[in-house]
Amino acid sequence: MLTNSLATEHIKKTDRERLKTLIEILQLDCVHRIDDGPQETWPDLFVENCLYRITSRENWETGSDLGVIRCESAGMLRDRITASQNAAVYAPRTIRHILSGTSIDRIVDDGVHCRTNVAIYQTNADGDTVLLMAAVYYDLITETQDGLRYKEKHLVYDTLRLPDSLIGPL
After folding, report:
1. Which residues contact 81 (CB under 8 A, 6 or more apart)?
2. Which of 32, 63, 88, 149 counts the most CB atoms within 10 A of its CB?
3. pTM, whole model, 2 decimals?
4. Does any domain span residue 101?
5. In what order do the strands lie in the sheet with 93-108?
6. Count of domains in the chain?
7. Residue 168, in any domain of the structure
8. Distance CA 158, CA 39 (A)
9. Model confidence over 123-165: pLDDT tens digits?
10. DSSP assignment, residue 88?
11. CATH number, domain containing residue 134
12. DSSP strand E in 40-146: where?
């Protein structure tokens, strides 16, 4: 039988592991919607008043708001998807994400701060595959009545030169 303090610590560890598993399921759902579709459902993984940003490591570390993409609501995310599917003209490509395990950095009143390493590959119409970027997702995830949702999702890339324009979400 566990002592009271050991039992409490075990429960906390179990709860944290369960939370980590739920966050990893959310991360996989997110990248599967980007990679395999339907992309129209990707914004459903965010709360309405959210922040999605793709930025360089340098901008992240200096606290700059500059980024390649910045959307400040789920509505803006939907607009980005619509534009990438209907308005933008670009060569056909396939995106594929490879994720590491997720680390929980801290739990606060408004959610869970976590990070996940990611490598994103792009395959063009000719079948050539290149590494688009090596990056980290820094997320703030909150619990809603619909389950876990992103309140903030920052894709911070290490790659110094992006090979193509970024059209849709990553």
Report:
1. 39, 40, 42, 43, 168, 169
2. 149
3. 0.89
4. yes
5. 69-71, 46-56, 147-157, 129-144, 111-124, 93-108
6. 1
7. no
8. 25
9. 988 899 999 999 999 999 999 999 999 999 999 999 888 766 6
10. -
11. 3.10.450.50
12. 46-56, 69-71, 93-108, 111-124, 129-144
